[in-house]
Amino acid sequence: MTVLRRVRAFLGQLLLLAVLAGLTAFLVTGPARLANGRTDDGLRGDLRKLAATNRDLTFSGFHVNGEVSAAIEAGRLEEIQQQLPAPLPGLIGGAWYIAESGQNSIVPAGAATQSCPNLAVLRYEPATTEAFRIVGGRAAASRSTTEVVIGQDAAQMLGLEVGDGLEMGARYGSAPLRVVGVFAPVNPDDPIWSDQMPHRAECPSPLDGLRQQAVLLTDQAGARLAGNRMNDLTDRWRYRLDENRITADQVDGMTRAVATIRRTPPDRTSIQSSVDSTLADFDRQVGAVRALLAVVQAGILATAAGLILLAARLMTDRRRAEFALLRARGGTVGAVAGRTLLEVLVVVPIAVAAGWIGGTLAPGRADDTEPLLLAAVAVIALLAAPISAALVARRPSFSGHRSDVVALRPSLRRITAEGLLVLLAAGGIYLVRLRGLDAGAGVDPYLVAAPVLLALAASVVALRGVPFPLRWAGDLAARARGAIAFLGLSGAGRAPLHSGPLAVLVVAIATGLFTGTVTSTVGTARDRAANLAVPADAVVRGFYFSPETAPRIAALPHVTKVVPMLLASGATIHGDTAAAILQGQVMVVDASSAGLDLPAALTGARRSDGPAPAVVSPHLAAQVGTAGTAGTAEVMGRTYRFTVAQVSEVTPGLPAGTTDFIVLPQQALAVPDYQPIQPNRILIDGHGFDAGQVRAIADAGQREQLQRTTGKTVTDAQLAVPATVVTWDSYRESLEQRGVDGALSFTFVTGMVAAAVLSLMAVALAVLTGAPARGRTLSRLRTMGLSPGQGRRLLVFELVPLIAVAVIAGGLAGFALPLLIGPALGLSGFTAGVAAGVSLDPWFAGGVLALAVLAVVAALAVENVANRRLRLGTVLRLGEEQS
């Protein structure tokens, strides 16, 4: 009961400690779970976008001596699944046995051989019989002829009906087929159909246009019959990975498992899948997000832990007289600490549990480190106050102690500790640059703490440097009229008294500005990536457009400029000094009117009989030659001479990462009228135009061009590459919608918001810590005529230097961190290959200044509340002192 009475007496101080402990416990659990949930959702979204052939694990059987499948191996489905290494067996969401032919030509029975026949795969898949319903004809029941059923969409594309006969031709034979039924899927979204969608493909000769590809389903007897006749039937066992069971922490294990079965597949099979490549790419992005989140989380948790220590110090400072009385009555230091621990045990465990429960309500997956961090929070929250009480109780006499003077002459022990802190920070940053945050065995705690150590080192340097300019300013203020500035600056000059709040404030500001700098850096790099890929307000892409297409688009409302452009991949390039034949991407554009960021040698080039100037990529220039070197490039079957005018790593119109490219100014090329350059890109400037109209005109231009080339009438359905319109805004938005971008954005927002809130709390605790001393000073000054407004000015003069030093030190540390550890964060993985660099949005710098102003306002409000509780002006009487 005695403990409960003491808890009730000091409930306000204990509640502050408990609230901070609960908040820290929530920060340990909630944000991490949300970030993991966003990451898992991103992984599942990436897997859903994959084609079935890339996403599924498909094992193909092979037979000795040319033997074909007997279509009787469905029983091996469970056997193969159990042989898969962990964690794959538990992640399989569906499994199907398939016996199918290769992709073979099909022609109507009795028809002549075609130059570009349609293609089909003959398949026996037992599970499909329950996944479709017959809508025309009947199910297959093969005897002497292979009977097939076909989906509605495929039948419409191929022009087939019930009763039609087909001839399927393979490499070693052919087989007659008969369509006996048309079916519709019971559930079109069932994954069993994901690898059976009909589609169009180009013919070997462009003059033949397109052809259709589909899957024909048959029964077991029909598959065996056709397989024997064509000598072409193979067993497959297809396993569907259920994305809803997969989480990001399983990616590494899944990648290793797929690599294992790729090396040693189940007996007499080979694997077909590229899911391990997708998982490896995603794992690299997750690693970068994990590193960034770890840095931000370390800064936030360090700030929160610092606030807990400040709250414990505040509670023990307010009870100095009580502890002195206990020691005077014979109480030991341990007794004082134990007494405080019992009080803390009443409220802190409940607060930590409440914070943890609140964090678990957040949707997402817990980190493996969550129990350890939660235990660390509980230990700090429980022991901070007892340890602080023990330190206070060791010196029971509190009179005659000039901490301001002593602090200006720090002890050798303190100087050594601060020097060690600076060395640890420098060593940690060096190791992060050398090894990265993840050295192969998970995130290293010391390396993750290095940015926090850097911020603490910055606060130490600031702490040692700030008293001297403040003393100089105080001397100037002493010569001026009025004592407010002098008294405030004198209080601020005793900087070591504010070492705790200053360190916490510097860490919070450094964390927030680091997060803001990374946000700005990624955003700026993505803008550059968008400028490269879409060097106009929009770009139209297609196969080839007729010369009339660009003028028609230019005539549309809200279109201000249109520039046609050719982008030819795999073009042949010769250098006069290189014997090898090179290949690369050739971009041909009217550089004088395109408005692209190209050198003056290209924009000012004019048509002549000599070689045209060109921009060449470094990799290609290393083989062709440097500036001034001549060469030739083949464009649409015609060779044009060029000289290297400039070597550039990137060029507008080509995405970052393109290694071999050359840019030629079309206005400088001697292009004959009988062999014009046909554009396959059209750059559009303008806002508010109708993208649908642009697409329709572009497709019409493609049809016209194909009709002139082939002499045949072409429909939209026969276009090999239907026109697409990509705006700058849509491309820029797509860069923020990849797998891990949800977690990345959440990390940015959480880091900045938490840093801002914790910064304000640090200022509030700094005010509360010094409130009793300032209260005694104000009470004495009130008897001398000090007004309430002058009292607030006194607080401003005392706090503004502290906040200004924290903003400068924390701001420099936060901005320097991306420069120092940027390579370890792997930010280029989020910027479409563009070098990230470091940039700071002026809005973030303005936000830090606004936060400083808000901190001063909050400090004045907290001081006003504290003064009311202390009853200044009424409690103090001449000769008395508040306690």
From TrEMBL:
Cellular-component GO terms for this entry: plasma membrane
Entry membrane topology: Multi-pass membrane protein
Pfam families cross-referenced by the UniProt entry: FtsX (PF02687)
Localization per record: Cell membrane
This protein's record includes keyword DNA-binding: no
Transmembrane segments: 291-312, 333-357, 372-394, 415-434, 446-466, 502-522, 746-773, 794-822, 842-862
Species this protein is from: Actinoplanes cyaneus
Residue intervals of the ABC3 transporter permease C-terminal domain: 752-861
Gene Ontology terms, MF aspect: transmembrane transporter activity
Highest taxon, organism lineage: Bacteria
Family according to the record: Belongs to the ABC-4 integral membrane protein family.
Key words, A-Z: Cell membrane, Membrane, Transmembrane, Transmembrane helix
Name of the protein in its database record: Membrane protein
